Amino acid sequence: MVGIVVVSHSQKVAEGAVELARQMAPEARIAAAGGMEDGSIGTDVSKILAAIETVEEGDGVVILVDLGSAVMSSEMAMEMLSDSSQVKIIDAPIVEGTIFGSVEASIGSSFEEVVEVLAGAKAYKKF
What we know:
This protein is α/β, with parallel strands linked by helices. The chain has one domain: 3-Layer(aba) Sandwich (Rossmann fold), CATH 3.40.50.510. Helix content is 47%, strand content 17%. It contains five helices and four strands. The chain has helices spanning 11-24, 45-55, 69-79, 94-106, 111-121, and strands spanning 3-8, 29-34, 61-65, 87-90. The protein has a four-stranded parallel sheet, with helices on both faces. Helix 3 links the parallel strand 3 (61-65) and strand 4 (87-90). Helix 2 crosses helix 3 (69-79). GO terms for molecular function: phosphoenolpyruvate-glycerone phosphotransferase activity. Residues 1-127 form the PTS EIIA type-4 domain.
């Protein structure tokens, strides 16, 4: 199953997105990597790396980020992996992307299919 990591400057935002997605796809492999180790605002490379390793099962991992250093920290975490070929940072909204990606991954979709669904989440219209 494709894993999903949510990277936000806020631990509460990352955990909230994961909590909501788990309501829709309880068996999905999702991890929150929000905030700094001490709970303050920011992004932490070691938390992101640990989250990737937690959800990685060999089918790939997608990373959803909020902004700025979340991208840079995620890229740094990917550089620390022995093989990051199946890890991708996705430009999609965190809440919708986490839900859409989790549901898609939970039905057994491939890495490429999950990435495609997440690409579409960016254009999702609520009304």
